Amino acid sequence: MVKLPIYLDNNATTRMDERVFEAMRPYFIEHYGNAASRNHPFGWKAEEAVDWARETIAKAIGADPKEIVFTSGATESDNLAIKGIAEMYAAKGDHIITLTTEHKAVLDTCKALERKGNRVTYLAVNKEGFVDLDMLREAITDKTILVTMMHANNEVGVIQDIEAIGKLCHEKGVIFHTDATQSVGKIPFDVQKMNVDLASISAHKIYGPKGVGALYVRKKSPRVKLAAQMDGGGHERGMRSGTLNVPGIVGLGKAIEICMADMESDTKRIQDMRDKMWMDFQAELDELYINGPDPLDKPEWRLPGNLNVSFAFVEGEALMMGIKDIAVSSGSACTSASLEPSYVLKALGVGEDLAHTSIRFGIGRFNTQEECDYTVAQVVEAVKHLREMSPLYEMAKAGIDLKSIEWAAH
Ligand SMILES: *Cc1c(COP(=O)(O)O)cnc(C)c1O
What we know:
410 residues; alpha/beta; Aspartate Aminotransferase, domain 1; 2 domains; four-stranded antiparallel sheet; 13% strand; binds pyridoxal-5'-phosphate
């Protein structure tokens, strides 16, 4: 029997790898120095560990160690990148371009800047979630100072062609930031090859600790400058003051080191489980809709462990109740208390009804085939059961076009 409950929400956060925990441990209780203390071995030990992590992370993304700024996570990295650029380049322009499907850490930062007078263009995506490069080209003006577009989407797994986006930005002389939280460590990511000027990273999405992340800031061609958003002791070359979270930083370094060493095998195993899950659902159920690119058609454009499916004619919440032992995310309750369906699904043109029936499965390093098979069986049973009670499903099966029905007045 599989051990319950099953964790299948790895796009929200991940279990920490024990190797990461062991690497961090000494920096809590033995080498607890302040990395900025230059006068004694406690400080030196801490600084050495931070240097190691900085080099490891830089190497993993094709950067120079001096281009890594440690933060408290991707939310802070996104804020620092976007607000830092808006402030630093205010004399050059006031315009920012982003996507409607970005993480809230980017969208709400842009909204905050709009309240301060910046102009923001929120580009639409197509039904698979891709941005159109021609639309981006047309949106760039001589007042555009920043394009911020995520690499891989946390809800529907779509991977943008950031290499092409970065190339276009560089041709136009615009700084390019990407939220790479979901991609770094899982799929190839290289700041040189992909023409990236700023990139946000978080440890807890890649089997590291919560509360630590990094921002890559390009130092040459072009040299990117940021206005600090946190003032204080001038840590991180003045870009982010505050005593460094040494154990957390070691954890981020170790998490990335493991991801890089195991990327090929991890990716294949996780992708195979995801693909099988999608095939099994399709073999057992009808009226299914994939949100984001179809994993079987475009595997290279979808995050390996991400599967987001709308099970028409069931309520996502009711379905979640029916699979209580499996931790997943639903498209209707994504932003906690609200009953609004996911804005990402909406941006992909998914109707409100279908959005409410959607479930995100996030498969990760610690999931097994047995867990995935158990999940499929439970979901299939729950969907069949709910549909048995659904008059709409019966009518649809009887060939009645539901859109043609005139419903009684509300
Ligand atoms: C999780 C996530 C964030 C926020 O990261 P934190 O480290 O939790 O602040 C930002 N962007 C994306 C795409 C994410 O998946």
